[in-house]
Amino acid sequence: MHPLVNIAVRAARRAGNVILRNLNRVDALTVVEKGRNDFVTEVDRAAEAEIIATVQRSYPTHGFLAEESGSTSPDAEYVWIVDPLDGTTNFLHGFPQFCVSMAAQYRGKIEHAVVYDPWRQEIFTASRGDGAYLDGRRIRVTKAKTLEGTLIGTGFPYRENLHYLDPYLAMFRAVSMKAAGLRRPGSAALDLAYVAAGRTDGFWELGLSPWDTAAGWLLIQEAGGMVGTLTGGEYQLGPHVVAGGPKVYEALIAEIAPHLTDELRR
Ligand code: IPD
Ligand code: CA
Ligand code: CA
After folding, report:
1. How many domains are contained in the chain?
2. Which atom of ligand 1 is nearest to the CA of 156?
3. Can you tell me whether residue 234 is helix, strand or coil?
4. Is the pTM of this model over 0.90?
5. pLDDT digit of tens for each residue in the chain (266 aa)?
6. Rounded to whole angstroms, how far apart are CA atoms 249 and 201?
7. Are 255 and 174 in contact (CB under 8 A)?
8. How far is the CA of 258 from the centre of ligand 1 (A)?
9. Ligand 1 first shell, C-beta below 6 A
10. Full domain range(s) for residue 193
């Protein structure tokens, strides 16, 4: 395992422990809406601080693009793109589907990825050119040739992305006519890791952030899959993402394309 992945795994496990410790306390706080939101913010921040401190202890010159603390040293050769808790809504409800996501960018290119599911204690890792792994075992995307019989992950637009709902629902309708099933697990980084592991055949979502997709992007590439924009263009950490095994990726683009608005085409 690459030394950077080793450190990332250590950092992600520590963040995962912070999350799990606080999961037990969410129940006690559910009645206090504001307190509960503040509390979750504290969990996000504490998990992120743990990640940054762990990486910085070994690599003091590395920069970060982290969801809670933003961008530090963006000109550093190595920049870590971090979502300390992906799946906050699930976490709030004790719905056990959330993760820690970390990707290491070297001179602007993602070279290493770690996604950690603290509930199942599953760790997904990848380094460019070295394949993708789940708990040390090689993973690959599925070989499905069409959408027939496939299980497709997705995310429903919400909050600031609600204006995508109409085109999204048209895409949803088109894909659900062909696939065997659609799932909205609620943690985009883990959803992408599941594509890499062949647990789902493909995935698409609108309105994501770089920390949701950076690690999953490399995991899928290293697992033999494709990640792109809604028009099938090269993915560059933009908000809209389509992913899958090569054939399913193409099939998803074909179903999605007729429903794109001008904004979604960009
Ligand atoms: C969210 C999750 C969710 C996706 C949202 C993300 P967060 O991340 O990945 O699955 O639908 O768009 O913002 O806020 O829980 O870190
Ligand atoms: Ca997220
Ligand atoms: Ca988050």
Report:
1. 2
2. 11
3. strand
4. yes
5. 899 999 999 999 999 999 999 887 776 644 334 344 444 668 899 999 999 999 999 999 999 999 999 999 989 999 999 999 999 889 988 899 999 999 999 999 999 999 999 999 999 999 999 999 999 999 999 999 999 999 999 999 988 889 999 999 999 999 999 999 999 999 999 999 999 999 999 999 999 999 999 999 999 999 999 999 999 999 999 999 999 999 999 999 999 999 999 999 97
6. 9
7. yes
8. 26
9. 83, 86-88, 155, 186-188, 205, 207-208, 212
10. 151-265
> What tokens were used for 172?
């949803």
Q: What whole-number distance in Å separates Cα of residue 244 and Cα of residue 203?
A: 6
Ligand 1 pocket: which of 83, 85, 208 to mutate (most atoms within 8 A of CB)? 208
Q: Check: CB of residue 229 under 8 Å from CB of residue 181.
A: no
Q: Are residues 11 and 126 in the same domain?
A: yes
Residue whose Cα lies nearest atom 11 of ligand 1: it is 155
Among 105, 138, 171, the domain-final residue is: 138
Is 19 in the same domain as 122? yes
Same domain as 98, residue 173: no
